[in-house]
Amino acid sequence: MQNQNAKQRQLEGYRVNNFGKPLTTNQSLKVSGDEQSLKAGVRGPTLLEDFHLREKITHFDHERIPERVVHARGYAAHGEFTLHKCMKEYTTAKFLQGAGKVTPLFTRFSTVVGSRGSMETARDVRGFAVKFYTEEGNYDLVGNNIPVFFIQDAIKFPDLIHAVKPEPHNEMPQAASAHDTFWDFVANNQETAHMIMWLMSDRAIPTNFRKMEGFGVHTFRLVNAEGKAHFVKFHWKPRLGVHSLVWDEAQKIGGKDPDFHRRDLWETIEAGSYPQYDLGIQMIREEDEFMFDFDILDATKLWPEEIVPVDLIGTMTLNRNVDNVFAETEQVAFHPGNVVPGIDFTNDPLLQGRLFSYLDTQLLRLGGPNFAEIPINRPVCPFHNNQRDGFSRQRIDVGQVSYHKNSLADNTPSPTPVDEGGYEHYQEKVEGHVIRANSPSFDDHFSQARLFWNSMAPYEKQHIIDAFSFEVAKVKSRSVRQQVVDMFCQVDSGLSAAIATAVGVKRPECTPADVTASSPALSMKKTIYVPDTLKVAILIGEGFDSTVIGNAVRSLRNSGVTVDIVSGTLGAVKGTAGKAAIANQTFTTAAPVLYDSIIVGGGTSSNPAEFNNSMQNYIEEQWQHFKPIAFTNDGARYIPMTSVQEGPGIVIEKNESDFNNAYITALAKQRFWERNIFE
């Protein structure tokens, strides 16, 4: 006991309570602002002299050893990019020159909040990072599956992540935003409003990596050979459409298979069903920079596709799995500052901070400045410079010279003139007072949040209400719950009233943003619907109709669908006409939430009660998650035992003259929201 008390006294001097104290740097310098980085004018570039920004982000970048602070849970694959439309008119980037040009690449998908051991189906933003190995060096397009972000200035990024990570006093909850500190941050940093609408939508629980969009988030520049620039945003459009899980399904999958998304990516590539995404760009002429009712440099804003169309210029195909997850997926180092001639930055203050942060992070995670020599990070073209030594140096540089300028090595390696491919930053005129402030054009936080809400289908709106109700109800502070409800009244009064009722606070009185417009591109309702790569479980017992099931299996596989035969035990299951099917899954080794649909084939078992219970469980869960279900004549006897009602998405052999085609058509639709009262 004495030793324990002595240890407590020893530690007491290290305990610090920040409550009520002024904000200072680590050198005890009181700071006058913590909301904006130091800029040359309110819309100018961030200045390197901002020691507070650099100290804050440097400390944040080094908070985790060795996993990433954010995007720790990730999975990746190799592939290639094929250009369909020559972009020479707009950029000198060689990988965007000449239709048909192919560039190798590496793509990593991830969740943001959770640790490496967290489940993959958590409600979260998904990272979507692509490294192009071009002939001019590596180009990294480092984005997310949501086109906007929580904050406008990088100086607030440590605060955002501190708020959303597990609370430090008990390290809970893991990989979840449903807790006090996150929603307290949201309510007190209202620039988050637009991003929160996306986070509470179905976009935050994608079906898999193959069925989610990717966005570069920031505004960049394309620059052509004449020095003419266009503002640009990058989009990845999945060929299989944009689809999501339902919340109950996402939670159950997280328990049944926390590796659900990485397993899906691995298995589809191994099967030769290569995921594809079309690269699209939105462009705005420099002279049109100020013609919109939003600031194009504000990362909390998107460019509505109806105003600035997306032009599809090429396709990414992921066609090879990694050989070693650590060596490739974990050691890959992305950086938005890895650009090639013809692609440049803007003064987006969130992007400006990322240009410092990513490089700084790699220095700690990957053991020093030589991370570019790790195989997955090496460019395909040779690189030469005067950088030497450091941890994990792999190159063996020969010769006595390691400086510029020199005469002993004929002044090599030497700079390359711009007209021969040397990189030159876009010459933008910058002037303004050195100031820590945001441009007033960044002040509107609710118009695009309202636009997003207006664009949702009825069932999508209900899912957003349900998500808010779940998340905010987890907040213990009544004050924070009330602040959140009051805040989102500025998006929609009906939305906030529904949340208020669910979380037990007063309904607010306010005037929502005066926005009546909608953007159909923001809704997932009108996406692509195809059966390719969907996964179907066929549930059978002894005595199933082997002819019907055999035809169904052939029809599904011909449509690119993966089929599992599920029964009470593994191995041969005898059907009619002396034929058997091989069950590769059992009711217990598989789970209904792991399938896009089921066919109830009927049959019997030596334990009828257990068999019937398993059948009913699979049927009920598929029904509750709005998925298509097919019943053979024998399987249809289970309908009265469940909640299933004949109607959309329910295909019954006795009712369909062409059972298989009817089922494939229903399967392609994937969800039947008509079962919901909100349609």
TrEMBL record:
Residues 24-412 form the Catalase core domain. Gene3D superfamilies: 1.20.1370.20, 3.40.50.880, Catalase core domain. Belongs to the catalase family. HPII subfamily. Its cofactor is heme. Decomposes hydrogen peroxide into water and oxygen; serves to protect cells from the toxic effects of hydrogen peroxide. Pfam families: Catalase, Catalase-rel, Catalase_C. Its EC number is 1.11.1.6. The lineage of its organism: Bacteria, Bacillati, Bacillota, Bacilli, Bacillales. It is an enzyme of class 1 (oxidoreductase). It comes from Sporosarcina gallistercoris. This is Catalase. One of its GO terms (molecular function) is catalase activity. Keywords: Heme, Hydrogen peroxide, Iron, Metal-binding, Oxidoreductase, Peroxidase. The keyword Heme applies. CDD domains: GATase1_catalase. Coiled coil: none annotated. The keyword Heme applies.
